[in-house]
Amino acid sequence: MLAKKLVTAQKRGETRALCLGLGMVACSMMMYFFIGITIVPFYTKSVWTTETMCKVLKANIKDEALCPNREGSEDEDIFPYPCLQVWVNLTASGQEVMLYQTEDTLEKNPKCSYVPDKVENAKEVKARIEIIASNFKKYQTFPCYYDPGGTQTNVILSRLYPPKGLLFTFLWPTLMFTGGCLIIVLVKISQYFSVLSAWQ
């Protein structure tokens, strides 16, 4: 009687462990799919892939600009901010080009090098942009990214999804997938030895 209870408990434990492993594999596949349709297209679409050194030529704050209205946004989402324009000398080609913070900055407003997030306090936005402008004047030379194919003549300060960041994004679903497969394999091995011992 006790042996039957132990066998039943063992089967229940194996079933739960097998369900856990399959669930982890399924979740990891869903994460792979989500990353593949959201982050990977932005990474592959970016043409600023080569790193070089940029030297600041001028960093000026122009008149206030309006944050362009995005699709689906309301008028209240449009807010004015000082337009910072940073021009740099590209070491790779020696050209004078405009610097943008990220790829997204160019899409938001191609006239400004930095587009702040919406905040209620306009003074904070102005102070932040002034600090950024002073940092560019202080640190004259820094790494930046340019388009080696020549499609885009401007440069960006940092990529939204660099190669290391993309690899780190794939790390968690990979660990979950590996753990799920390991659990399934261990359950199958346990079942195999149980059948083998029962047969003997």
UniProtKB/TrEMBL annotation:
Report whether Lipoprotein shows up as a keyword of the record: no
Q: What is its main location?
A: membrane
A GO BP annotation: detection of calcium ion
InterPro entries linked to this entry: K_chnl_Ca-activ_BK_bsu
Q: Does the keyword Transmembrane helix apply?
A: yes
Q: Which UniProt keywords apply?
A: Glycoprotein, Ion channel, Ion transport, Membrane, Transmembrane, Transmembrane helix, Transport
Q: Where are the transmembrane segments?
A: 20-43, 166-187
Please give the Gene Ontology molecular function terms for this protein: calcium-activated potassium channel activity; potassium channel regulator activity
The similarity comment for this entry is:
Belongs to the KCNMB (TC 8.A.14.1) family. KCNMB1 subfamily.
Identify this protein by name.
Answer: KCMB1 protein
Pfam family for this entry, one = CaKB
* Compartments it resides in: Membrane
Protein's membrane topology: Multi-pass membrane protein
One cellular-component annotation, GO: voltage-gated potassium channel complex
